[in-house]
Structure formats: structure tokens, C-alpha cells
Amino acid sequence: MTSQFKAEVFQNQYLPQGFGEIHAIMTITSEDVVETSATSNGDRLFGIICDTSGSMQSDNSSSKQTTKILAAKQAIIKLIQLMPENTYFFVVTGASDAKVIVPVVLATPHNKERAINLVRNIDANGTTAISTWLAEALAQFNKMPNAIRQALLLTDGQNDKGDDRALLAVLERCEGVFQCDCRGVGTDWKVAQLQQISHKLLGTTDIIPDAQGIEADFQQILLKAMSKNISDVNLRLWTPQGARTVFCKQVSPDIVDLTGRGKSVKPQIVDYPTGSWGKGESRDYHFCIEVQPGKVGDEMLAGRASLIYTLNGVETKITEAKILAIWTDEEAKSTKIDRRVAHYTGQAELAHSIQEGLEARAQGNFEVATAKLGKAVQLAHQSGNEATAKLLRKVVDVEDANTGTVRLKREVAASDAMALETRSTKTTRIPKSNQ
Amino acid sequence: MTNTQCPNCKSPILADDRFCENCGVPLIAEGLSPTTTCLKCGANDIDAEGYCAQCGFRNAPISDIASNERIKLVVSQRLAGVSDPGLKRDRNEDYLALQSLNDRHHVLVVCDGVSSSQAPEVAAKMAANTSCQYLVEAIPVGEDSELAMKKAIASALKAVCAIPYQSQREEDHDPPSTTIVAASVQGTEVTIGWLGDSRAYWISGANIQQLTEDDSWLNDVVKSGKLSEIEARQSPQAHAISRWLGKDAENDAVPSVVKFTISSSGYLLLCSDGLWNYIHTPSHLAELVQRYTDPNAIVLSEGLVEFARSQGGADNITVAILSI
């Protein structure tokens, strides 16, 4: 393993007497200067999971010529064509039941040609039982437990009501076996449903409003997947006896709350999953740890965070950083808030305001919706999160971004509200010029 | 005495040594020594940086001095010195202080923190800086040089005694301690004061003179005729020092002071035992110095430090040189 990682911690270490809550932002960067040709064991396995329920047969709202299934098939064919020859892949389609269209094969020209012919014959009918699709995918991934294992799931509709419990059960089994990015095409799917899958499987959820956009989106996902060269990475946190981890969140590039995802390794040590990493990748994590307050002048190691990857049962520590607490009676020191901690606290509040605002709006509580989305506009403006500000402007008319004065738009495209909902957790970093 | 040999390198050690003076390995079983017990929670699990692996409390001063790197001081072409951690020790517990008032007046101090004591690196730094400052201020006042030397070392003692340390049980404490050798040069008159086994030499061509006499167990028994030097060197106490600067030697820290008149050109050299451990005879040191045709003090200091490192560098190595 030649990949090089760097960890930095940003925090105000100073606490006033009697206080024990420590906040720290850890930035982890895998350096791109080091050429890492080898993966964990040299193999990558990419799974394509595609909805073939009856609704996929329907026209797409804006492009009457193409059905969703046709666009999806074209996109899958394109993906197979682009697959690097040293990669393994499979294709699973699903409706009420799942079918393995192409079992795990190496992406040789011959195998690609056969796979493409099989994809061309895919037909769409039936309802939507995503649990069966994931179960088939899981069986495929289990064939190569040491490869870097990633998948892409495309659907256009809601999961069958009767499948909810089966889905939860299969997600438990899939967790840690593969990562999965989810895409919803059109506007008939449920954001929360796909997010449930992508959160559990350490992936992203996004909307593809128009079927014509499938191909470009898929290519991006493949590109990102192929850049990963180390998988099964855990963020390991040691905390002192009697301490409580209030939360552990990834806060950049998007917010992922890992608090409930931790697995206790031994007393005082918890592992949080972070999935696979590619070169040149950088993520920020926000820790909030509550420790027993010390005396003025005491210094305490409030946390030791390290990145660990496991291959064939052997753990390797990639990088490590310390979170400290020092008690002081100097108010000037203890009252300072670290800029990065403040920034990400704001970004989390931004995401939260959007979620609450959209919920209130859906329930017809326009007063709350206006207040929450107004607050979101203000926070996005102040933190320079232009991407989120732009999405917000499709849902509200902004009178004054500084004060968060907004009016709800009367007519909002369903796809715009869904885009805001899925992308509200995307954060920005502190602009460089401020540093 | 239960431990007479270091379990790692087999060199002689004292019964109450916490670390081997030769290779630096900890000698006391975990849990017995106050330094391996967390002062906050009493756990016996403290990492290399002093953090308790149980409660996280840091069992060390917050403001750690950077003590693991080579210190290089160049006052002028004539006055310079180097303090190097050596090859076997994690940190440098030696320190040096050098100052020139003008062409004729110079002060040199070398201190070697006692590694079995607490915060030895702080003790060495405090003692060197305090005594050097006192000597520099005494010169223009015209204070008697012998008296000034005694007062300088007394001020160093006071500073070392003021370093906070952890005393769990009164009878068992081991307060910060250090050796000291200081030289005040006023024209051709050199006044040397010392406590412990850091040394001063005068080297002029092939002639060499050791100006100090180690305050060591070995020196004491040989001088008193109890043992021959060869016999004494076999003893586990061969490297034990009999006097030092520290709170546990407050009444005993009376320095030896000698005066020396310079009559030719040459080098005044102060060093810690990290160098002289590798010097077999005084003429051996003179030979080493003569290898350097460059009279530049820093070149010679670095050369001697490199020599000690090439011979094993088991201890911290400090060399200070005034070229006259």
C-alpha cells in the first residue's frame, strides 16, 4: 500500500473550568502525488443494478421519444463499453423479482460484447421490490470479497409497500459488503427511500430529472468508482474513560452522520465506516466529545482519531491525529470558536433548515416553511455555499439574502424540490481567501 | 542492589536508576515508578507522549521544550558549540549556553541533566541559562571571578530547585537534577566551576590539560585509595556522580572552582560525558582536535560530536569551544 494520507485537526483546545464538551474538525486528505497503481488486492468489482419495473416503460416527461428503460439500457451499454479491462462487473435487473443478467465477469472485449447483447434484450414489467435486487447484487459481491466493491442503483419509482421490512433486513446484510450510489430518474420516486439505501451503503443519492441525463450521470459515477484504490477504511476513535461521543459526522464534501454507525472494537475504541478512498480525495469530519472536566492547567487527550484499513484480517493504520482539551481560566482563550468548527456547525444547520423547510412546505405549513427556508438562504449566503443557494432560489424568491427574507414560490417543479432535498447535505469548505 | 546490569545492553546501572544511562531503556517495572502511574486516575498505562491511555490526562508539562533536536550555537568564529541527542536517546537532556561580551570576555556553560531525575532537560536548560546570565553580568561589575562563579552556580541551583516536579511520597522523590561546568574567560584568566562529571579541557597543540575533576564515585574511591582505577571501572557505580545541582543536593551543591592562566593559543573545551566517554586518554582528545586545521570553533565542535556519534553516540553529546 503506497497511498499516503494526511490528517489535520482544527479545534480550540481550551475549555473553561467545569466544561467538558470538545469540538474538532479533522481533515483527511489522500495525497495525489503518489501514484497508487495497486488496489487492495488489485481488483475492482462494479455492480449495475437497474429498475425494470413496468413504469420504466413509460415516456419521460420532457422527452417523448425515449422511454426510461431505453435510456437506462443505453447508459448501461455505455458504462460497459467504458469499463477498464482489468475491472470486474455484473448487471442485475429488478422488478418484483431480480434477475442476474450478467454475472460477475472480467471486462474483456469479448465479455463486454456478450454483456451488451444481454442488456439489449432487457424488458420492463412488474412492480418494485428493491430488496430482491440488493439480495442478488449481494450474492455477486460475495464472490469477490477482497476487491473494491461498488454499485450503482437506478430506479424510477417507489418501493412496494410490502417490501419495507425485507429491504431493511437485506440492507443489514449488505452493509460493509459493498457501497452503493442511488439515482432516481423522473420524480415518482421517494428521496427518503433511496437515501435510506445510500446512507447504509455509504453512497450518494441524487435525482436525474430527465432520462436523457442518465448516461452522463452514470459515467460520472463510474469515473469516481474507478478512482478508488483503497476500500474498507474505518475511522477509529479512541476516547478517554468516561467520555461520550456526542456525534461523529462527515461534514465535507457532504454531511453524513456516522454517530449511530460506530462499532465498538474494545472499550474506549469505536470504528466508524468510511468506505473506499481514492487518490486526491479530501474529507472533513466533525467530532463532538464530552469528557470529564479537568482542573485549570490540566491537559487531556480527548480523542485519538485514526484511519484504519483492513485487508485479509490485517489492520493497517494509515494516519492519526489527536484531539486535545486544556483547561484554562483565561476567558480570551476558552471563548474562541475555531473557524472550521463554526463553519461546519453552520453547514449542518443549513442542511437541517432545508429539510425542515421542505417538510413544512409539503405539509402545507407555509409560515414555518418560509422561516426555515429563509434561514437556509441566509446561511447559504453567509457561508458562500453558492450551489445550495442556487437550488434554494428555485423554491423561494429571495428578497434579502443577508437577513433571510424570502417568499415561497407558488409554482415549484417537483424535480426542483427533490433536487434541493437530495443535495441539501452538500457542504462547502471555508473559502481559501479567508484562511 | 537487585539490578546491577541493564537487561538490554548489559552496562552497569544503579539500583534506583529509572533508565539505563547507556542505552536509555526504562529499568523499573511498570506500575512501580511514579512516572508510569497516571496522577489523575492511577492507571499504569501512559503512552510515550505522557497521555494516560485510560483517562487521557497528560502526565507531563504542557510546554514541552523541543528537546529532541541538535542545538547549534555560533556566537562567533571563535566561540561555538553543539548539543546533540546522540543515536540512542529519544531526547536531549544536555544544554549549553555561550556568550561573548567582547573579544576578551566570554562565558561558556555545559549542563547534563541527570536522566534518572524528573524533567532533566528542563533542569539542564535552566541551570545553563541562569548561570551564564549571572557570569555575563558579573564581568563588567568587576566582581571577584571565583566568588562570581560560586554565586552563578548558586543562582543556577535556585532556578533548578524552583522547577515544579511530582513528589508522590516525600522520601521517594527524585527532583530535577543536572551537572554543570561553567567557564568565565577574562583576558588570559579563566575561572572554571563545576558540579558532577561534565568537563573542561585546555588543548594547545599536542598539550592537553583536564581542568576539572569529576565529582564521581569512581574518582572519589580512586582518590581515597580504596580501589585502583581499573577495579573501580568494573563497578556498577563507575558512572555514578557524587555531586549535582538539584533540590535533593541543596546543601551539598558546593561547586569546585579553579583558576587557569592561558599562556599560548589553543582551545578551551567544555563537554558532557557523551563525548569524553569515547576519549580513552587526554592525548587521544588532543589528536582528534589536531586533525582540524580550520580554527573555526563550530567546525571543531561539530567534528567532535560526529566523532562521538561514530563511536556509538550512546548518550547526549555536548561540546562547547572557545578558540584563543
Report on this structure.
The complex is a heterodimer of chains A (435) and B (324). Chain A is an alpha/beta fold. Chain A folds into three domains: 5-36 and 239-336, Immunoglobulin-like, CATH 2.60.40.3670; 44-228, Rossmann fold (3-Layer(aba) Sandwich), CATH 3.40.50.410; 340-434, Four Helix Bundle (Hemerythrin (Met), subunit A) (Up-down Bundle), CATH 1.20.120.1690. Chain A is 32% helix and 34% strand. Chain A is built from eleven helices and 19 strands. Chain A has a six-stranded mixed sheet with strand order 2-17-16-10-14-13. In chain A, helix 1 packs parallel to helix 6 (214-227). The longest helix of chain A is centred in the last third of the chain and has 24 residues, at 339-362. Chain A is globular and about 75 Å long. The model of chain A is unreliable at 33-39 (pLDDT under 50). By secondary structure, chain B is α+β, with helices and mostly antiparallel strands. Chain B has two domains: 1-60, no CATH class; 71-323, Phosphatase 2c, domain 1, CATH 3.60.40. Chain B has seven helices and 13 strands. Chain B has helices at 120-141, 145-161, 217-223, 229-234, 273-276, 282-290, 297-310, and strands spanning 71-74, 79-84, 94-100, 105-112, 177-178, 180-186, 189-195, 199-204, 207-210, 245-246, 256-261, 267-271, 317-323. A six-stranded antiparallel sheet of chain B has the order 1-2-13-12-8-9. Chain B has a five-stranded antiparallel sheet with strand order 3-4-6-7-11, covered by helices on one side. The interface between A and B is medium-sized, with 17 and 10 residues.
